[in-house]
Amino acid sequence: MNxxxxxxxxxAEANNVPIIESDSIEFINKxxxxxxxxxxxxxxxAIGYSAxxxxxxxPDVEIVTIEKDEKRYREAIKNIKNCGLENQxxxxxxxxxxxxxxxxxxxxxxxxxxxxxxxxxxxxxxxYLNENGVIISDNLKFHxxxxxxxxxxxxxxxxxxxxxxxxxxxxxxxxxxITKFFDVGDGLSVSYRSNNANIEGIN
Length: 203
Hints:
globular; 6 helices; single chain; alpha/beta; Rossmann fold; 7-stranded mixed sheet
């Protein structure tokens, strides 16, 4: 499987597909291990890289992952099948904000999709979270530009950075959840309900 992983990394670089950084997936996999996480929802499949990295290290984990881009969806289906993980990973081809997961509950929700929609994703999918579950969000540094806005050269990127800042403010002001921020990879946050202290590995 290691060669398949390398092939995915090469494909992502050649086709400008953002995939999770190694430090970030290592952090998440450690969280899964420490907290006996079994059911995961991922917002933003891309080519299936992060879902595969979680599933291959944890054979008892089940993942539902949502992707709205058809080309990336098809690539993810192919990669998951090639890795023999189709029994662990279910890929939903749809816009996450239009997806109904009625009846599902998750131990972890991983948000790694359109940055401008993070608040909407959080508000929608928190209702699918188990009582002791967490919501992990990636790319909160956005290649270092959130902390170094003078390096931004386009209005489009400025808009994305502004949305990320608004999301960070939203997390900090959210009374329902406590959020901890980690300088890991491209910036991660872990949000858990205010009445839940039974979280390992995030202190």
